Amino acid sequence: MEKLVSSWSSNQHLPEDYVFPVEQRPGEETTIPVCKAIPIIDLEKASHGRKDIIQQIIDASQKFGFFQVINHGVSGVLVHETMSVVKEFFTMDDAEKASVYSDDHTKSCRLHTSSPNYDTEKSHFWRDYLRHPCHPVEDFIHLWPEKPATYRDIVGRYSVEVRNLSLRILDLISEGLGLEPGFFQGELSNDLLMSTNYYPPCPDPSLSLGLPKHSDPNLITLLLQEEIYGLQVYLDGQWLGVEPLSNAFVVNIGHQLQIVSNEKFRSVEHRAITNSREARTTIASFISPCNSCIVEPAKALVNEANPPLYRAFEYQEFLKSYVAKAGKKETALQAYKIEVKHH
Ligand code: OGA
Ligand code: NI
């Protein structure tokens, strides 16, 4: 428990093992303004119609690998209750959090600090995180925190709604890509892992990171954040700030969707910076293939002119190598790439 950043960090200097190497530090970039170009897509705008919404999602997934959705159908009350109960969890006394804390990174539900590579990484991430599977709820709810008393009920309902929204977005994507209806339903989107991140106020945001540059390994991610800036996207050699909107979901393309789309979409790298004023809480819902799912570029998207850029593999094989490579994009994908021969 003494590892939790939240349990020791107030009124402390930044410890050496939380200082990132110069080339990874945000430095002055902690103050870059939010980028208004990252699309905010209204899923209910009747005047636009389904075709237009699909086009906006496809364009954003190609260009940015990121977009936000508003009027997304997940109840505003539930979104608010979920953020509140998660914040309440992180601000409880250590003793009340002890039952879910673990140094064993193979445990499916656990509270810890930094990353699964805590014991071997050079620099720790300035965050505590609680991670657990969510689907189907009844298989996993007994592993979730018992306190706050409403956690299981609220997060249970939230995870069902977020999963439904994800499947809805995936249906729009499959239609936009010209894939058969329901293409992503089933094994490719079977698992839902929820990771709640708590970034305490940090004594030196220019030297540290809540999450260093990474792409998500899964299919697609829906992130809920408060109206506190912290998420940055690395696009064409430049960091862009994502506008914090408390009633929107930030949607980003994971490695599996880059692979299945045969690189029509990009799993764009991103990071979380810290700030010295206030704690920031985010809730990431990772929609993932099941472990035994065979992933490969969609057959309908490959032909002689567009050969497959990746070989087929089992998702659990990918995940293992992803964690070992600490999330770095090029090395995480390398082993699965097919060399394209130029004539
Ligand atoms: C993640 C992530 C960003 C944030 O959990 O993979 O990128 O702002 N989170 O918490
Ligand atoms: Ni991420």
TrEMBL record:
<dbReference type="GO" id="GO:0046872">
    <property type="term" value="F:metal ion binding"/>
</dbReference>
<dbReference type="InterPro" id="IPR027443">
    <property type="entry name" value="IPNS-like_sf"/>
</dbReference>
<keyword id="KW-0560">Oxidoreductase</keyword>
<comment type="similarity">
    <text>Belongs to the iron/ascorbate-dependent oxidoreductase family.</text>
</comment>
<dbReference type="InterPro" id="IPR044861">
    <property type="entry name" value="IPNS-like_FE2OG_OXY"/>
</dbReference>
<dbReference type="InterPro" id="IPR005123">
    <property type="entry name" value="Oxoglu/Fe-dep_dioxygenase_dom"/>
</dbReference>
<dbReference type="GO" id="GO:0016705">
    <property type="term" value="F:oxidoreductase activity, acting on paired donors, with incorporation or reduction of molecular oxygen"/>
</dbReference>
<keyword id="KW-0223">Dioxygenase</keyword>
<protein>
    <recommendedName>
        <fullName>Fe2OG dioxygenase domain-containing protein</fullName>
    </recommendedName>
</protein>
<dbReference type="InterPro" id="IPR026992">
    <property type="entry name" value="DIOX_N"/>
</dbReference>
<keyword id="KW-0408">Iron</keyword>
<dbReference type="GO" id="GO:0051213">
    <property type="term" value="F:dioxygenase activity"/>
</dbReference>
<dbReference type="InterPro" id="IPR050295">
    <property type="entry name" value="Plant_2OG-oxidoreductases"/>
</dbReference>
<dbReference type="GO" id="GO:0002229">
    <property type="term" value="P:defense response to oomycetes"/>
</dbReference>
<keyword id="KW-0479">Metal-binding</keyword>
<dbReference type="Pfam" id="PF14226">
    <property type="entry name" value="DIOX_N"/>
</dbReference>
<dbReference type="Pfam" id="PF03171">
    <property type="entry name" value="2OG-FeII_Oxy"/>
</dbReference>
<feature type="domain" description="Fe2OG dioxygenase">
    <location>
        <begin position="188"/>
        <end position="289"/>
    </location>
</feature>
